[in-house]
What does this fold into?
Amino acid sequence: AAGVIQSPRHLIKEKRETATLKCYPIPRHDTVYWYQQGPGQDPQFLISFYEKMQSDKGSIPDRFSAQQFSDYHSELNMSSLELGDSALYFCASSSGGANSPLHFGNGTRLTVT
Amino acid sequence: AQSVAQPEDQVNVAEGNPLTVKCTYSVSGNPYLFWYVQYPNRGLQFLLKYITGDNLVKGSYGFEAEFNKSQTSFHLKKPSALVSDSALYFCAVRRTDSWGKLQFGAGTQVVVTP
It folds into this structure.
């Protein structure tokens, strides 16, 4: 079965650089979520999109932005990177409403040096 | 507001013994409850969910969970643990009237020894 695809798998950036993470949800899933997971932490919700419109917003820094495109893929753009942004970034998708589970990709490991 | 508590950072169990991972939740209104498992450097994998109805929910890989409304708990269980069950387990909650974020607990590391 098709899963959520994230790219790149690993990304190394320097402080103050920008990064773009991509997510391709499971086909026919209408909602995309972005989560950030620091070392030894639980996933922290950043932002979600339903049918290409922002549906909910969590603890996403102003330096970050995201969007969902017409083909339903989503991108998380991160600017002015800081050392503290080093984390695993997960994308998840779901369909069918609040009782539907999220299906997660394998994540992008961002390292800021 | 919604929150999830997993009181144990780590659970150690011998292979073949029963495994329990505890979870309590707080949410205004009725909850949807989920369990996920995470292996190192991998995404979270869905195990099971409680929506409504039978309080005992069966999921993947022999796991089950019991919903207890009065105790606001949703403990994950497996009758006979395997070494391959060693992983990080997350409980999560979402309000039934919300399409928004899934709130995760802090996670419980399960270590199954041969």
